[in-house]
Design goal:
Strand order of the largest sheet: 2-1-5-4-3-8-9
Low-confidence stretches: none
CATH architecture of one domain: 3-Layer(aba) Sandwich
Mean pLDDT: 93
Number of strands: 9
Helix content: 25-40%
């Protein structure tokens, strides 16, 4: 099932890199950017996370939170966050149940090998838990800037 603008965002509770349980309900009353990425430490995922880190002040200044989700373990997230100075939660979805609920656990192909994995995707979820924007098949370069533009447009029309 592919989620669309106007759909209720699937609820989740996942473990973060610091061992805390973090759920979508923790952000009720606040807009949250939930981004799914394939793997800690890979070049594209590192660039994306560092871009969110570099723009986090601007994002938080408009009252928006950021959460990253991948199948990696909490220990992997802890190391990844420490190495790159990431201060937003990275959540562990080892059985990819949340990725499946969001429609981002998809068939992939690399080097002639077929497998299932995360399709790099971002969802902007409003304070009531409704999806306001969906970015699928994200290209890392310029993505966070596009998210900021969407957040600004959403605020202008509110």
């Amino acid at each position: 099932m592919e989620l669309s603008i106007g759909d209720r965002a699937p609820s989740f509770i996942l473990e973060s890199g610091d061992g805390a349980s973090v759920g979508l309900k923790d952000y009720r009353g606040r807009t949250v950017v939930v981004y799914f990425y394939p793997k800690d430490g890979t070049s594209g995922c590192t660039a994306e996370a560092c871009s969110f880190r570099d723009h986090l002040g601007r994002i938080e200044a408009i009252g928006v939170a950021v959460v990253g989700i991948s199948p990696d373990s909490p220990a992997s997230h802890r190391r990844f966050a420490a190495k790159h100075g990431l201060t937003f939660p990275l959540l562990s979805d080892p059985d990819h149940a949340v990725a499946e609920a969001y429609g981002v656990w998809v068939p992939k192909r690399m080097y002639g090998r077929d497998y299932m994995g995360i399709e790099r995707s971002t969802f902007i979820i409003d304070p009531a838990g409704i999806i306001q924007r969906v970015f699928r098949k994200v290209q890392v370069n310029g993505h966070v800037e596009a998210v900021l533009t969407a957040l600004s447009e959403g605020r202008a029309s509110s």
